[in-house]
Design goal:
Elements (H helix, E strand, L loop, with lengths): L6 E12 L4 H15 L6 E6 L7 E4 L5 H10 L2 E8 L11 E7 L1 H4 L2 E8 L11 H11 L2 E12 L4 H5 L10 H13 L13 E5 L7 H15 L2 E6 L2 E5 L11 H17 L10
């Protein structure tokens, strides 16, 4: 059985637009906040230029590179940025901590916020859904989140690449490879479809046809049938998760899988299209 150092906590949020033009500086503060909460120091950052022909380049997170970052923040010169805390092996793909945000609408049809870290960096104080709730609440102040998920994945499966739809790990199952291919093809419909059922999930008004009564009925059934913890991010966006501490992922994996099966049935009951399992 894999230990917690070989598992990654992953939070992925898909958004339609930024809530503000000068988002880079605010996002940097958010990254520092959560890195501090789990005891990580940033070691590198990578700016993603607006110019599709320009290549991104990672920089060490040190004083002499501060000017590049500050200039990008001031002039809004980047469409995205990733921050990392690298381990001794300096491996970006399996970094113990990574937090990035980018507008990828020209490539994929959506913007994305990706947070992942070694599961063992989370402490008991982050139990249940409170860490994910706080994280998503802060992210929603920067971007109009319409869909998202929170789950645990083996680090050797490169969860960062997996959820960025460019998975390349030899450890992926055929079903996981198909999932990446389907989301790469259909992910632009993120405001109305779901990728699969996860430990934590974000839905928004498009998933219930912009019908408030249908939305209330959906969320009530998720709570009653799945036992989910529910938190409304705003009046049209809801976050919910399994009634199991994510730190107990290994010990209570069976309960989490049962939650996911019940959730898929609720989605079916409410005519929400699930891409997983679609040929």
């Amino acid at each position: 059985m894999l230990d917690s150092q070989e598992l990654h906590f992953c939070s992925i949020s898909y958004f339609s637009r930024f809530q503000m033009q000068s988002w880079l500086g605010r996002f940097h503060k958010l990254v520092l906040k959560f890195a501090g909460e789990i005891g990580q120091e940033l070691t590198h950052f990578e700016l993603w230029p607006h110019d599709e022909n320009a290549r991104s380049k990672p920089y060490r997170y040190i004083k002499r590179n501060e000017g590049r970052f500050l200039e990008a923040c001031k002039e809004n010169l980047a469409k995205g940025i990733d921050f990392y805390s690298l381990g001794a092996d300096k491996d970006f793909i399996e970094a113990p901590f990574a937090f990035g945000m980018a507008d990828r609408k020209n490539e994929t049809g959506y913007g994305i916020v990706l947070f992942h870290c070694n599961l063992d960096l989370l402490e008991a104080s982050h139990s249940r859904f409170h860490f994910g709730q706080e994280l998503l609440g802060d992210i929603s102040s920067l971007a109009d989140i319409r869909y998202g998920l929170v789950d645990v994945m083996e680090s050797r499966k490169y969860p960062g690449l997996y959820f960025l739809d460019s998975a390349s790990s030899i450890y992926l199952t055929p079903e996981e490879e198909q999932d990446v291919a389907r989301w790469r093809k259909e992910g632009s419909r993120f405001e109305t479809v779901v990728r699969n059922a996860y430990w934590g999930n974000i839905l928004s008004s498009g998933h219930w046809g912009n019908d408030p009564e249908r939305g209330r009925n959906l969320v009530n059934e998720i709570e009653s049938e799945c036992g989910a913890d529910i938190s409304w991010i705003n009046e049209r966006t809801v976050f919910f998760c399994a009634p199991v501490d994510i730190l107990d992922h290994k010990r209570k994996r069976g309960e989490i899988e049962a939650f996911k099966r019940r959730l898929l049935q609720v989605y079916k009951n409410h005519d929400i299209e699930v891409l997983a399992g679609v040929p």
